[in-house]
Recover the amino acids of this structure.
């Protein structure tokens, strides 16, 4: 009888520990996905601004700022 109760108790403890680990993992994944979604949203807004020309002050990495007067060869 004691062996049976010890087996059942061990199984219940292992299931509870697995459940709690799963809940913690899901919480961390949810937080990571929220941060990723926010980052993608910011990039989308910046891309829309650049596409519409409203983001003249925003330059992408590696892009040279526009010059005020282009050089023409005569």
């Amino acid at each position: 009888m004691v062996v049976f109760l010890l087996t059942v108790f061990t199984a219940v403890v292992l299931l509870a520990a697995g459940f709690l680990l799963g809940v913690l993992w899901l919480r961390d994944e949810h937080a990571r996905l929220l941060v990723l979604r926010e980052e993608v949203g910011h990039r989308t807004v910046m891309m829309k601004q650049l596409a519409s020309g409203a983001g003249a002050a925003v330059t992408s990495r590696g892009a040279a700022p526009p010059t005020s007067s282009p050089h023409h060869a005569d």
The chain has a mean pLDDT of 83.
